[in-house]
């Protein structure tokens, strides 16, 4: 039976590999773990290049075949254009399967992007099968050898398109906007910006809707968003006894003031707007890529209102897409660069602060004057210690395309951008081993030292430099030319 996910009522119960942690109550949280790929850990433990052949591979070692030839680089032929309009005009419960068949037989491989976009919002039934058939006919993809396809044909197919860097038709963004705004009209400003530098091919739906609540609104997201936490109350370290010492916190220090953000609360909210050390901060946490970052939102040029960061409900290669509530501008969550909207037009790139991934016990020992968020987040709720219940343990559950084989896909790295623009990733396992016998590690002009249970970075002259921890697949896809310390 076909399940069409284009109604707000259906969203909470019919998610496909949802990235969400619900709108703040535990009942919703308990439904969000994605199904795991059967026996993934028995297939391939990590991405690798055993043959040394340089072939592109996915997260479980499957080798992508060669990309199909592009036979059409211009406008669609009239018959194909008509079929595309027929399909887009029928989006909903009565979708035109004949139009899907016609597109699959068009021979224009660029249309695979639009077909996988439609597939994202479908779950089972003849239309889903028709879409898979049309995409495989167009591209020649054989899903059988790819273990990822056992859980999600959509993820596997999209992985292929990303790995090939397959071009899309000229009007791709327009068609994608028409599709996506059926489910969330509030995304329309993102698609309306002709100067946007976002690559819509790599953008997918994360399974939740936009968080567009005003700053300071503590109400849950009735329609199903990931609710940011604004200016949460804190206590001193002694008031943090509610949080076990062995559990992870994300530590930030600004102008000598330290604060710990417990991972379990960040997994629920994925975004905090806060003030620390007299500076205004936006702190996104991408659960899917294991990355908490901190941006000085008051670092915008004079005359620009301090951004209020929110979660959009969209993803790009398994990384959350954040945006500014005030201007509806998307900012790259990994780099802080505005890529759509008024902030993009004004060239805004948010300055980063260091985020240290540590256990609570080690953080408060290193920073005895630290504060920690109140146990109820200031909104009167209870946070389970493990809201996601190992959802991401078996690798990315959203498309990421090909992976960099220098480290395992979900190896933890400390990422740093040198002032000269060079990206450097420090393998956390290698750092931990090296710092067991010496005080610091130096590589490419960057010095890493321990801070609590995590790490901070400086330049050779002792100048602090922003760093944060993330899964290797996330860091490497946003910084493909990164240098790596500790690949052995």
Structure in words:
With about 500 residues, this protein is of the alpha+beta class. The protein folds into three domains: about 35-185, no CATH class; about 205-375, no CATH class; about 410-485, no CATH class. Helix content is about 25%, strand content about 20%. The protein is built from 14 helices and 23 strands. Strands 2, 6, 7, 8, 9 and 13 form a six-stranded mixed beta sheet that branches. The longest helix is centred in the N-terminal third of the chain and has 15 residues, at about 125-140. The protein is globular. Residues about 5-50 have low confidence and may be disordered.
List the topology elements:
Blueprint: H1 26-29, H2 40-43, H3 78-89, H4 97-104, H5 112-120, H6 125-139, H7 153-164, H8 172-183, H9 188-191, E1 203-205, E2 229-230, E3 234-236, E4 248-254, E5 257-262, H10 263-269, E6 271-276, E7 279-286, E8 291-292, E9 294-296, E10 309-316, E11 319-324, E12 329-331, H11 341-345, E13 351-353, E14 356-359, H12 360-366, E15 371-373, E16 412-417, E17 423-427, H13 428-434, E18 440-443, E19 446-451, E20 454-459, E21 464-465, E22 467-471, H14 472-478, E23 483-485
Parallel strand pairs: 2-6, 5-15, 17-23
Antiparallel strand pairs: 1-10, 3-15, 4-5, 4-14, 6-7, 7-8, 7-9, 9-13, 10-11, 11-12, 16-17, 16-22, 18-19, 19-20, 20-21
Helix pairs in contact: 3-4, 4-6, 5-6, 5-7, 5-8
């Amino acid at each position: 039976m076909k399940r069409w996910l284009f109604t707000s009522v259906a969203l909470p119960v019919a998610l496909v590999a949802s990235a969400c942690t619900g709108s703040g109550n535990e009942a919703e949280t308990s439904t969000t773990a994605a199904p795991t790929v059967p026996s993934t850990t028995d297939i391939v433990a990590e991405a690798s290049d055993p043959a040394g052949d340089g072939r592109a591979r996915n997260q479980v070692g499957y080798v992508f075949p060669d990309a199909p030839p592009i036979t059409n680089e211009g406008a669609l032929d009239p018959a194909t254009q008509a079929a595309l309009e027929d399909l887009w005009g029928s989006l909903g419960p009565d979708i035109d399967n004949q139009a899907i068949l016609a597109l699959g037989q068009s021979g224009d491989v660029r249309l695979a992007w639009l077909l996988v976009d439609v597939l994202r919002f479908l779950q089972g039934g003849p239309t889903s099968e028709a879409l898979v058939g049309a995409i495989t006919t167009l591209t020649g993809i054989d899903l059988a050898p790819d273990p990822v396809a056992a859980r999600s044909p959509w993820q596997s197919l999209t992985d292929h398109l990303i790995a090939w860097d397959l071009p899309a038709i000229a009007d791709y963004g327009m068609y994608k906007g028409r599709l996506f705004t059926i489910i969330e009209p509030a995304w329309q400003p993102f698609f309306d910006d002709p100067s946007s530098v976002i690559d819509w091919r790599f953008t997918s739906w994360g399974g939740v809707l936009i968080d567009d609540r005003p700053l300071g609104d503590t109400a849950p997201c009735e329609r199903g968003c990931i609710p940011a936490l604004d200016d949460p109350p804190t206590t001193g370290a002694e008031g943090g006894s509610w949080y076990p010492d062995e559990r992870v916190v994300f530590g930030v220090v600004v102008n000598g003031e330290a604060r710990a953000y417990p991972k379990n609360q960040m997994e629920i909210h994925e975004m905090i707007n806060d003030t620390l050390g007299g500076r205004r901060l936006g702190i996104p946490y991408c659960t899917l890529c294991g990355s908490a970052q901190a941006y000085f939102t008051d670092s915008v040029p004079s005359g620009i209102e301090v951004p209020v960061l929110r979660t959009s409900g969209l993803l790009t290669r398994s990384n959350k897409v954040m945006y500014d509530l005030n201007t509806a501008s998307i900012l790259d969550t990994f780099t802080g660069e505005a890529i759509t909207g008024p902030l993009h037009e004004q060239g805004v790139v948010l300055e980063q602060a260091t985020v240290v991934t540590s256990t609570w016990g080690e953080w408060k020992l290193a920073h005895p004057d630290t504060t920690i968020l109140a146990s109820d987040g200031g909104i009167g709720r209870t946070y389970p210690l493990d809201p996601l219940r190992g959802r991401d343990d078996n690798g990315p559950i959203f498309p990421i395309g090909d992976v960099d084989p220098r480290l395992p896909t979900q190896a933890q790295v400390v990422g740093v951008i040198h002032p000269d623009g060079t990206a450097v990733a420090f393998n956390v396992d290698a750092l931990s081993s090296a710092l067991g016998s010496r005080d610091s590690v130096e590589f490419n002009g960057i010095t890493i030292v321990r801070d609590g249970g995590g790490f901070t970075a400086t330049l050779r002259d002792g100048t602090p430099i922003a760093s944060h921890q993330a899964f290797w697949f996330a860091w490497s896809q946003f910084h493909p030319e990164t240098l790596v310390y500790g690949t052995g």
